[in-house]
Write a structure and sequence with these properties.
With about 200 residues, this protein is an alpha/beta fold. Helices cover about 35% and strands about 25% of the residues. The protein is built from six helices and nine strands. Bound molecules: 5-O-phosphono-beta-D-ribofuranosylamine.
């Protein structure tokens, strides 16, 4: 399965997907990395791995839809049939989300549907949660919603600050994002209503 990855920054989840791709018989090939931010660290990671990159700067477009259209054009030109958001910090327009329906996934650093949006880890601590985690899900038009493919849970420790909790969650993100992509590329994931089933379960 040919995949495009959309990033805005550090790209550690992109790196996890790149590294997973080194396994023999890995069923997903990243053919393009797009960043809306020039100089994003993830672009360097892609370059080092010999993956084609593009910077598509949202600020040079007149609104969300033309920007999203330019991304779709670049993704399709690269031959990608599937899109992974990996720390991509722009909201996407409905036409983009509809076009890529069930071919567009995101990773979010909480156990969705709890703690959507930004600044998750501090909010988890403020709420006194005993557990947090991360979620890979198909993208729907409402932010951080959509059929959940894989989740991982981590404990929240009494002495955690947001940084410590983020690091513990990130470690799991790097495991579940490749796992989810692999399941999809192996055709083991189906979407029924708002549920994603793995091997029909
Ligand atoms: C991750 O925590 C991801 O869950 C969230 O943005 C962060 C991106 O980190 N959507 P990185 O760029 O993959 O290192």
């Amino acid at each position: 399965m040919k995949v495009a990855v959309l990033i805005s920054g550090r790209g550690s989840n992109l790196q996890a997907l790149i590294d997973a791709g080194a396994a023999p018989g890995w069923p997903a090939e990243i053919v393009l990395v797009i960043s809306n931010v020039a100089g994003a660290e993830g672009l360097e990671r892609a370059g080092k791995a010999g993956i084609a990159t593009a910077v598509i700067d949202h600020k040079t477009f007149d609104g969300r839809e033309p920007f999203d259209k330019a991304m779709t054009a670049a993704i399709e030109k690269a031959g990608a049939e599937f899109v992974c958001l990996a720390g991509f910090m722009r909201l996407l327009s409905d036409p983009f989300i509809d076009h890529w329906r069930d071919r567009l996934i995101n990773i979010h650093p909480s156990l969705l549907p709890a703690f959507k949006g930004l600044g998750v880890h501090q909010r988890v601590l403020d709420a006194g949660e005993k557990a947090s985690g991360c979620t890979v899900h198909f993208v729907r038009s409402e932010m951080d919603t959509g059929p959940i493919i894989v989740q991982a849970e981590v404990p929240v420790r009494p002495d955690d600050d947001a940084k410590a909790l983020a690091a513990r969650v990130l470690e799991q993100e790097h495991k579940i994002y490749p796992r989810a992509l692999r399941l999809i590329a192996e055709d083991r994931v189906t979407v029924e209503g708002e549920r994603a089933l793995i091997d029909g379960q």
